[in-house]
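One such given next:

>
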Amino acid sequence: MTTTVAQLADTLQTLFTTTAQQLALDTRLIGRRRKLSGPSFAQGLVFTWLDNPHATLEDLATAVAQDGCGIAPQSLDERFTATAAEFLRRLLLAAVGQVVAAQPTAVELLRRFTGVYLLDSTGLALPAALAQLWPGCGGRGDTSACQAGLKVQVCYELNTGALQGLSLHAGRDADNTASLASQPLPQGSLRLADLGYFDLDVLQTYDRHKVYFVSRLQPKTTLYDAGGRKWKLAALLAARGGDRLDEWLEVGPGRLRCRLLALRAPEGVAAKRRQRLRKQAAKHGRAASAEGMVLCGWTVFICNVPAWLLSLQEAWLLYRVRWQIELLFKLWKSQGGVDESRSGQVYRVLCEVYAKLLALVVQHWLLLLGGGFSDRSQRQAARQVRRQAARVAGALGRGRELRRVLRLLAGVLRRCGRVNRRRKRPSTYQTLVNPTHDGLS
């Protein structure tokens, strides 16, 4: 259901006043309310970092001051504790429990499904002192990986632009163990996730509940053709011949029935893949396998969507839509600075990560005022949101004024720059509106 300006205003108002106050009491963040409250602490940090990801301690101290009562930068610095981090973490989780959605997209290929859910994660390095709280993928003596890290899992519904889930995990955790990896989805919806989420038991469950999926295939997974013959992927592709394959078969020990979709990759793409495979194998002191080298020449998916609903070419185009969630993470890091900090103080860094993630959730909500998935530039739209961050923060607590500010922002975002149509390399939106582009990239 589309979120109105009034509903979004109510969501922001409740989150940054009532909820923030209750969580401040629950976590015992605030002992004295004279100079600092839970709402002022949350609002000051979140909206200041939304406006300027590189804000100084002095900027933050000015922003969190309540009712004209100043707080010294050093006093604020002392407030960045484990308790403050826990308060901000809980407030972030309260925010992602809200669903803010735009008007569903007009793209016919996406509207065939009750929802198109993109699943992916991004990693954030943390100070080594936080290794017990958020263990990273490195260990003692391992200088190539961080000892402490946070993995942010996101589920993004493309039809309405809604963040359907965001969860925090240790940097060392595998993607397919996250709760979002197996969360229930609506019947008739489509799930798109990369190879890190490959789990045949999960896909079997989705298939049983009439949820569609398009997934990459683990190369060593056993396949069974319609006659019950057992195959390895490379052997099956060689036996079938040609440059394309679309065949119903069974996959894995549980015999998941689905379509095997394969497209031969252009030689330039295949060569780059082989180079990466050789380099990866050499890193582990072995030679690249002959089977792996063959599979570099193919792009392979499994899919339970019937052919009358989704052709092989359309499945390939839809899988490329996953790039939208990568663009979201890129926006969060390049413009939101979620992986950067001016401080080396451990809990200030952790507070900053949680507060910036919350700021970026709020930014995403505000972006949806201008509509969901389209040919608009998200980078340009995000700049407009950040410019209005202080006005939004200033209107919190005044419902009518907040709704007025949001309506003005919605108008600006609807007029925000459109991406020029490209002939040689059409954008994802262009391709889905007119799915005639053929080939791999």
Summary: Residues 120 and 154 are 6 Å apart (CA to CA).
